[in-house]
Amino acid sequence: MGRLQKILIPFLGLVLAFCFYSARENFKPEMLKGKRVIVTGASTGIGEQMAYHLARMGAHVLVTARTEAKLQKVNGKLSTHTCMLMACTHKRRKANLTSQVVERCRELGAGSARLISGSMEDMAFAKRVVEAAEAELGGLDMLILNHVGKSYFSYFDGNVRHVQKLLDINFLSYVAMTVSALPMLKQSGGSIVVVSSMAGKVGFPFTVPYSATKFALDGFFSSLRQEFRIQNVNVSITLCILSFIDTESAVRAAADVLLMSPAPKEECALEIIKGGALRQREVYYKYALTKIPLLLRDWAAELLDYLVRQHYQVERPPAA
Ligand SMILES: NC(=O)c1ccc[n+]([C@@H]2O[C@H](COP(=O)([O-])OP(=O)(O)OC[C@H]3O[C@@H](n4cnc5c(N)ncnc54)[C@H](OP(=O)(O)O)[C@@H]3O)[C@@H](O)[C@H]2O)c1
Questions:
Q1: What backbone phi and psi angles, to 5 degrees, belong to 64?
Q2: pLDDT band, residue 170 (cuts 50/70/90)
Q3: What pLDDT, on a 0 to 100 scale, did the predictor assign at position 319?
Q4: Domain boundary assignment for the chain
């Protein structure tokens, strides 16, 4: 009997804990209705899909990308460099794509939809985006930091300048936007959603500079979350740990080398929004490819590293 009690009591504790966690609030699309949301890097990929989901839910969306700025730059040189015409046409097409995202958001039912274009290499631009939200939306409820600078998928080439540039785009601009947005987010009791990667939790080959920027995000935002708790700051921070997703850029870079199928960007985008709305600490997508392997990280790091390498065709590494 005594032994039975020893087993039964912890078991009941586990059942109660499970019930407590599963009784947490469920996601409802209405949670986003009328909310003021910034989505960075929304001209394509996961960011674009997040903008569409938010629009369907009736949010006010403000999206960012570089494309329009690039177009203006090329236009400025047109008269003297006719050879730029072809590039201009290409970039005009990309800029059209970005304004198409805004158009589509309006069609899908967004409370409002706006685009601000510029490069996140420039911290002043990062700050301007937040100022625009204040001026045009009158505040902010959710800041979704998603943009990512172009990098290579190959062995580390030793280029320190590239690492520095990528840190500016993928990390420092996230910090700059957070700092600027905090007063508005504190006022609304809002959320910060940071899109990261498995490569920001575990060492992956061929993505050394990218991985460094994603690890930096974890350090910064996880520490900031702790300070928010201590100071009773009612702003949630959700870090999103993503596996391989079927966006054009990721598939182009990695599909020949990674021995796994990419997960759908539409579903991924929805999971990120749900996690942010429910103020979750972290989002894992796909769960089985992120959360489960991460359980091995602290106790069997060598085994996890080995399993990661098994998913790469290292005998045919990508060209630098
Ligand atoms: N796809 C995956 O397999 C995967 C896996 C794990 C994590 N993630 C994370 O998910 C997020 C989205 O990835 P994705 O695959 O959807 O990326 P993507 O399709 O390549 O889109 C990147 C976005 O960032 C913008 N961008 C690029 N450089 C910029 C710059 N210098 N300044 C401002 N904006 C810039 C791009 O627009 P412009 O080029 O017009 O500026 C685009 O809108 C990223 O944070 C990525 O690390 C993706």
A1: -130, 155
A2: very high
A3: 62
A4: 29-310
Looking at ligand 1, which residue's alpha carbon is closest to its atom 42?
41
- Its CATH class, for the domain covering 29-310, is alpha beta
285 is catalytic: no
Q: Do 52 and 104 touch, CB atoms closer than 8 A? A: yes
Distance 65 CA to ligand 1 centre (A): 9
Q: Which tokens is 174 given? A: 């996230």
Is 250 close to ligand 1, i.e. is its CB under 6 Å away? yes
- How many angstroms separate the CA atoms of 212 and 198, rounded? 12
Tokens of 187: 């006022």
Dist. CA 41 → ligand 1 center (Å): 6
Find out whether the beta carbon of 169 lies less than 6 Å from any atom of ligand 1.
yes
Per-residue pLDDT at 67: 81
pLDDT classification of 122: cutoffs 50, 70, 90: very high
Distance 138 CA to ligand 1 centre (A): 27
Handedness of CA 134, 178, 117, 29 (dihedral sign): negative
149 lines ligand 1 (CB under 6 A): yes
Q: Is there a contact between 318 and 207 (Cβ–Cβ < 8 Å)?
A: no
